Structure formats: C-alpha cells, structure tokens
Fold:
Amino acid sequence: MRELDETDLQILELLTEDARRPFSDIAEQVDLSPPAVSDRVDKLRESGVIRRFTLDLDRSQLRAGVPVLVRLDLPSTEVAAVTDNLRESEGVEHVFVTVEGDVVFSARFRSDAVREGIDEVVDLKRVTDYDVTIVSEMEWVPSVGGTEFALTCAECGNTVTSEGESDRIGGNQYHFCCPSCAARFREQYERFSADAE
Amino acid sequence: MRELDETDLQILELLTEDARRPFSDIAEQVDLSPPAVSDRVDKLRESGVIRRFTLDLDRSQLRAGVPVLVRLDLPSTEVAAVTDNLRESEGVEHVFVTVEGDVVFSARFRSDAVREGIDEVVDLKRVTDYDVTIVSEMEWVPSVGGTEFALTCAECGNTVTSEGESDRIGGNQYHFCCPSCAARFREQYERFSADAE
DNA sequence: AGTGAAAATCTCTCAGT
DNA sequence: ACTGAGAGATTTTCACT
Structure:
C-alpha cells in the first residue's frame, strides 16, 4: 500500500468538509500547487481510500417510511449472500457484519409494511432469527479523524512510520508500527473474537 | 416544505454517485441549463436535504483500531447529552437513537483499549448498561432511493402530490398523500413504539 | 513528486422570458 | 423558474525540475 502522509490526510479532511472545494483552495492550505493536489486526489481514488465523492443527505426529508435497525442471526455460510443482496436493495443505508457472524443493517420501510420490507431485502429462508428496532434518529458523522492526523499503530497507538506494516484482518486494513505489534494484535483479535460468542 | 420533484431527485441521484460531476453534465441528463441545475442544488442545500458534499472513505485503510458497534442503555433524559457528545467525538461514525430510547453507535477504537475508547466518547455515569460487538465489516450504502423516484406516502405508498402534507414525527420527516394517512400513520407509529418496549 | 503557464472546461452572473 | 451568453474561476495538460 502507498504511504499516506500528513498532506494526504489534510486533503481528505478538507474534502470531507466540502467535497466541491476547489483544488486551488486546498492547494493553498496544504502548501502545494493545484496540479499536485489533483494528482494526490487521483491517487487516493485509485488506492481506494476515497471510495467516491458523494452527498450527505437528510434522508428523513427524502425517503418515505420508518427508519429501522435490523439484526439478523444466520449461518456464517449465508453471510456473503445476504449482505450482497442488502447492498443492492432499496432503502438499505448501512450494513455491518459482526465478528460473531451476525448482520446488522439500517433501512427505511413503509410503516405498515416493515416485515414485508425486510422480506424484500433479505431472503428470510437463509436467516435463523431476526429482530427489528425502530429508530427515531439516524445520523452519519462524516469526519476523517479530527485532530489526530498521523496513522497510528492499531496495537500500541504510536505513529506509524515507513518502517511500519499494514495488514488486512477480518476484512479491515490495520496499520502497525512494527512486526511485534502486528503479531500481538492478531492474537488479541482472535481472542476477542472467540470471547464474543 | 418545498416540493421535491423528479428532477431534484435525479440531481441528487447523480451527485450521490459523483459529487464533483460538473453541473453542465447533470444539466444535459435532466434536460435543463447549467444555471438551472446550480439553482436547484443551492435550494437543496438551503432546505437541508443536502447536508454537505463529502467523501465516502474506506476508513479501514485510514483509521487505526477495531470497528465496533455499541449499544447504550440509558435514561431518556441523558440521550441528548450523550448523542451530542458522540457526534463530536473522534472515531465515531454512525449514531442511531431507537424509539425505546437506546443509543446505538459505530466507532473505531484501539484494539487494546476498546473499553477506554468507549469511556472517552460516552460519559458512562449517564449510562445504565452497555454492550459492545466487534464488527468485521462496516459499509455505508450511499444511494438516494434507486429506481423509486417520486416521494411516496409513508402510510399507503402512493405518490405524494402537492395536495399531500409532511410532518416531523420522532425526529424524522414523513410525507403523506392525505390527512387521513397522516393520522393513521401517527397511530401506528405510537402503537409500534409501545410494542417495542 | 512537484511547478508554472497555457488551454480547456466549468461555474456564476445577469439581462431577458 | 428557466435560458443564453459572457465574465471569471477552476481544472487539466504539458514541458521542465
């Protein structure tokens, strides 16, 4: 993975605040030329750190229906099929997969047809059990990481330098300042996952 | 509230896909001039439908720590204070308030300091009980509403015309095609909320 | 990787409908 | 509310470091 420096994080911060901010504006704040900012943004997109430029919408003004939080209890063999389907479904906003293998998602459904709505987005034959909670407020907090800019070691919290390493564990990318932190993290992660059942 | 028409929803859809898409590009697709698109976007921002132009980031590549889902059990008098604090905290990504008055949030914390991390973002003195689930995948699904464009009545699903009405119930804006649907929705909402305890 | 300058593109303003 | 045209701003390209 390409090394993210502090300038990249500043750029991300500024674009998270306002994704249409001119590059010339950003350039001034991070002390680069506009083309240099443009280059870095291109690379951040290519590397997948920036998934897309998008809108933060007040969906309560937009989409009819009650917002709900649904927890699905299901065999681990079905997780992939179910989450794939959720991602493509109407009204689904967030999808979480827990290490126990549960799936939690948020969505909006018509108030008189919550069960039917769920039935449309998840194949209930694949699911052992589920429960639904109505939500009265749903909010996404778009921020890069506030004041803490540098990449920190997931194990010890130290700043990760170019000596550090990165690894993908349980579907997520983690950064470590040294190999021993990486090893210890993996142990702890496995122990935590086992505890959770 | 100003009426959202199909063109507005198309514009939102296009900007959700790529918030830096030129207005001239959008103009062509919705059959308007670029200044007209710009005007509509301004109004969508003013009315609060567009909260901001932002980035969808792959936070797993960015922020150290384990992603977790936390459920807080707390007195209803404390909900506002706790959620306000969460919104301003480092590492918190989503905040949900259920109609039962529970708070659910997602965040990332250092693997060796999950409890401490939670302690930093919520004042545990205000909380009756809480539980933590480690998450292995966390995904936001940014889409406006896919193929279903028109505003639909939260009660009966019919298209809401200018005869319809809108109301804010439990912190969310709902749209109705007629007053009787609005009344029936309120009843059902209250019954559902009562059931949920 | 970055710069500066020119070319191309996009956004905004404004008078008019 | 929208359009079209022009002014002004922004982004991209490219030769060079």
Notes: Residues 32-33, 35-36, 39-40 of chain B lie near DNA strand D (CB under 10 Å from a C1'). Confidence is low (pLDDT under 50) at residues 146-150 of chain B. The helical segments of chain B are 6-17, 23-30, 34-46, 79-87, 114-121, 179-195.
